[in-house]
Amino acid sequence: ESITRLCGECPNLIELLLWRCVSLVHPLVRGRRLETVNMSDCSLVCDQAVSAMCHPDACPSLRQLCLGNCTALESPEMICRTLEVLDMGGCDRLTDAAVESASLSPVLRKLYLPRCTSLSCPTIANPSLDT
């Protein structure tokens, strides 16, 4: 609720740092100009919150998303055509399908997936990724 109010009252917000906010479960993050969101170590953040944030109408300028060690995440739908950097390291319940859909951003350059122990072999075919 407070995150929703913050985003609504700060329309020019471009960076939102929420790392280690361990009580966050379903923050409603929205912002027309929001480019960077860091929710690393927010271990309770749910799939629905990330899916809503990545919807094109919620954060149309989102370029960098850090979700490292968000251990509750399994299969968020990340339809974000502007995403350039995605860090999901340590999301140990993450599914192959979630990674595959996230990797479809046409401008994605960096994808970090260390310690994602539940991944078996996601298919990532994105020519824009740095190798």
What's the layout of helices and strands?
Blueprint: H1 2-9, E1 15-17, E2 36-38, H2 47-53, E3 64-66, E4 85-87, H3 96-102, E5 110-112
Parallel strand pairs: 1-2, 2-3, 3-4, 4-5
Specify the overall morphology: globular
By DSSP, the count of extended strands is: 5
Q: What order do the helices and strands follow?
A: HEEHEEHE
Strand order of the largest sheet: 1-2-3-4-5
Q: Could you report the average pLDDT, rounded to the nearest whole number?
A: 94
Helix content: 10-25%
Structure annotation, total helices: 3
Biggest sheet features? 5 strands, parallel
Cα end-to-end separation: 39 Å
Quick overview of this protein structure:
With 131 residues, the chain is α/β, with parallel strands linked by helices.
Could you explain the architecture of this structure?
The protein has 131 residues and is α/β, with parallel strands linked by helices. Helices cover 17% and strands 11% of the residues. α2 links the parallel β2 and β3. The N and C termini lie far apart (39 Å). 33% of the residues are buried.
Features:
131 residues, alpha/beta, 5-stranded parallel beta sheet
